[in-house]
Amino acid sequence: MYSSELIKGTLKTIVLNLLKDNEKMYGYEITQKVKELTKNKIQITEGALYPTLHALEKHGDVETEKIYIGKRVRKYYRLTEQGQNTVMERVNELADFMKTMKYLLDIDTSIQHA
Amino acid sequence: MRNVTDEEIDFILEDIAKRGVVTEDVKYNILDHVCCIIENEMPSNEEFLKFYEMTIAKFYRENLGEIEKETRELITFKYYYAMKRTLKVSAVTSILLIMAGVTLKAMHWPGAGIAVVLGLAFFSLVFIPLNIVMKFRDDKEKSNRLIMTVGMLTASAATIGVLFKIMHWPTANIIMFSSLLVFMLIFIPIYFIIRFKDPDTKFNAIIHTTFMIGAAGMLFALVNLGYSKKYMEQHPEQFDHPVEQMDTNQSINH
After folding, report:
1. How many separate domains does chain A show?
2. What pTM, to 2 d.p., does this model score?
3. Given CB atoms, is A53 within the 8 Å cutoff of chain B?
4. Which of A74, A105, B89, B146, CA to CA, is 20 to 30 A from B18?
5. Do B58 and A59 touch (CB under 8 A)?
6. What's the CATH code of the domain at A96?
7. A46, B58: Cβ pair inside 8 Å?
8. Residues B3-22: pLDDT tens digits?
């Protein structure tokens, strides 16, 4: 289980990317899917997930669909066209960031090679 | 798997509202989430209340209101969109008014003054200030913020100067003259240096600077910087070589 600080900065990217691969998802489904894909290493907390989803909706990256289940309302999230672009940007940015971090944190080994 | 009953749903809804979550969307999201957990993960021999308390406790660090607070903070960006809309509206309004104004003025038709005044006022007092605010939100870089603010403010001042000049109001010259000076001698060089240093904006820096110098230069040339005829008549000793006055109203005199 990684620290919440680490997950916080990448949560939007994780959520957007999941929605890219799955047509529509609701909150609980997202947390379960992440848990399953990462073998429990990343557990998204509800306290972080819902504010992020609301923000993504406001920004127009995702759109929602409400399904009424008895007295409950389930909100499904789906990527918009703008969201598709945002995913690509975000994933590329993160990939680049990871490369940089790897280089930055591996400083010792690269000095040995030099 | 067990189904959550209607009574339990009512209980949960009431409880999360009591804990400080009032936004409808957030409330129903949490409700559905809790219900999903209960339905999928609650052991059959567990008591509902106990399991619910345990589940909801995992949603927050200190209290459930955090989710509401965090959501609101992220959503305050909605003002950003409202501002963006206002910006677009003010841009279109000022363009239409200015175009109508200059057309009416060129044709010597009535209403020119009002349209020009409104158009230029909208442009300099609504459109440009909004641009500054937006720039502050979008750009976290201090040097960028500063340079854009200086640029926009002088552009706004120059516009007001032009407006005064067109309307023959006093102090037009001093407003136009000083704002154009600041624009050309302070803003453009700093803009050029900052943008030219950055490889990404290097090319645009050249283009933009050329445009700005061209536009500002032409405006500058139009400001009559010489002494007025009246002043020269009152102080003839200062003008050993009398400046030839160009008669711009020749056609009218003949």
Report:
1. 1
2. 0.52
3. yes
4. A74
5. no
6. 1.10.10.10
7. yes
8. 888 899 999 999 999 998 88
